[in-house]
Amino acid sequence: MVERRPVLNFVQHFVLILGAAIFAFPIYLAFVASTHTGIEVNRGLPLLPGDQFFQNYATVLGEGLSTAGAPPIGLMLMNSTIMAMAIALGKIAISLLSSFAIVYFKFPFRVLAFWTIFITLMLPVEVRILPTYEVVAQLGMLNSYAGLSIPLIASATATFLFRQFFMTVPEELTEAARIDGAGPMKFFRDILVPLSRTNLAALFVILFIYGWNQYLWPLLVTTDESYYTVVMGIKRMANAGDSLPEWHLIMATAILALLPPVIVILGMQRLFVRGLVEVEK
Amino acid sequence: MRTKRVTFRHRWLPYLLVAPQIVITAVFFLWPASQAIYQSVLREDAFGLKTEFVGLANFERLFSDSAYLESFWTTIVFSALVAGLSMGIALVLAVMADRVIKSALVYRTVLIWPYAVAPAIAGVLWWFLFNPTIGIGAYAMGQLGYDWNHFQDGNDAMALIVIAAAWRQVSYNFLFFLAGLQAIPRSLIEAAAIDNAGPFKRFWSIQLPLLSPTVFFLLVVNVVYAFFETFGIVHATTGGGPGNETVILVYKVWRDAFEGLNLGSSAAQSVILMVIVIALTAIQFRYIERRVEY
Asked: Any idea where the ABC transmembrane type-1 domain is (chain B) (predicted)?
């Protein structure tokens, strides 16, 4: 603090607390709605949690919304987890390997390989929706975990991050490894990967959230309900035909859908902030 | 491009190492992108029996199509509002949090998490909050004398998706603003304080100018976000409606391809979006090269 200004300090804390409260408000209301019966919610929402917590959550996890023809949320949560994990781990694995090759080897086409990877940065799924869908359909990957995850695991950002990090690893380590007769893969496994641990974890947080929050892609490649992910599945519920939307169950689903990434981000906050600032650099 | 001074030598290992990424990139990125470009110069008849080369006709049709131009305008308004709103709020909060150093971490924790909420979920939450019949937001607006109905009023629907999109982006902007503010040397602020500059004066003449690289960076990132990552918000809530008032470009590409089955037009729209995203990425990279280190 530069100088004492009690009034300003008060204003600051007030603004910050107000901001935090406004930020949390939609989630709080969603939680409140998820603890009442549907009738109570549709009559006008109470502001305090009700007593239907276990009832509602058990319903969505076990049965789902039968009226909307949606599968149980338990299954969707599992699909989301599989997809998010596959995307995060897959991205990390292939970018680790390719950036290792690009930094530690001199080979023809090295620069070409680098630029090929780089270009993916410029082509988000959203701008090539139909042709990508056609490729996946031709490969017979619709309605499968492979179709949900593999097309999304090519990532220029992760490759950049690892490349940047590898460039800062001291040359002496490589020399020492070579003198001791270690081959490239041994060096990679025993020195490089352990050194990258923090970066790996930071990247994992970001990529897990990225994978979990995918919406458009699962919407395109899944028609079979048993492969729905929870983030895309929620839309099915909100537009449940003519009947009144069952807001108490939809909100319970929303809470369940946002909880895993929020827990990850809060639990690994330091890593996340560090990773985010570094990835974007 | 640099490598290490000490490198390994191997005949086939490096190719094996880059292979997975290159294969995935080629199959799922380069090939579809080239298909989009190829399809954008073709026209298929209604039954999909015959395709013919039409040159740039698809593009010409798009730019004389009032629905497309309207969608373009909608997207620009949407992006400007999302970027402006989320950056403005984030800057205010970051400046506040920067001054109270001791509790900055606590505030960071309570402000960071909306970033983890998927855009589609954020949309549904706000959709519920402002539901005309049961939402508290709509009720509060009613008390203030405003009849909120995002099912019928295009402006209400637009406001809703802007709020939902900005809500989760504030966290992201806040983190970068806070990091930027904390990188400004304290001695500068203290020197200004000794010269009798008050907090507002210091903000305008020292912090904001030094923050301008961050502002510019975030502006690009936010526009990219609003353009390309908000499909879920629109699709899960307004569905483009009422009418076509909230049809943003990404939503239109999807709808024309999967519901309108107008492949040539959708491909041409994809190509236009690619040009936009490439331009934005190029701007971002130029900025990074020029970035001032202090």
From this structure: 72-284
Compute the distance between CA of residue B107 and CA of residue B98 in angstroms, rounded to an integer: 10
- Tell me whether residue A60 is in a domain: no
What total of structural domains would you count in chain A?
1
A28, A37, A128: best mutation site toward chain B, by most B Cβ within 10 Å? A128
Return the structure tokens found at A102: 């690009």
In chain A, % of residues over pLDDT 90: 17
pLDDT digits (tens, 9 = 90+) for A174-194: 889 888 888 889 999 999 999
A257 at interface of B, judged by CB pairs closer than 8 A: yes
> Is A218 among the domain residues?
yes
- Return the number of other C-beta atoms located less than 10 Å from residue A51's C-beta: 9
Residues within 8 A of B (CB atoms), A 173-202 only: 174-175, 178, 183-185, 187
Inter-chain CB proximity A5 and B199 less than 8 Å: yes
CA dist., res. A45 & res. B135, Å (int): 7
Q: Helix or strand or coil: residue B51? A: strand
B20 contacts A94? CB cut-off 8 A: yes
The whole domain housing A114 covers 80-230+270-279
Say which CATH number the domain at A113 has.
1.10.3720.10
The domains found in chain B, sorted by start residue, are 65-290 (1.10.3720.10)
For the complex shown, is ipTM > 0.90? no
Q: What is the mean pLDDT of residues A236-255?
A: 73
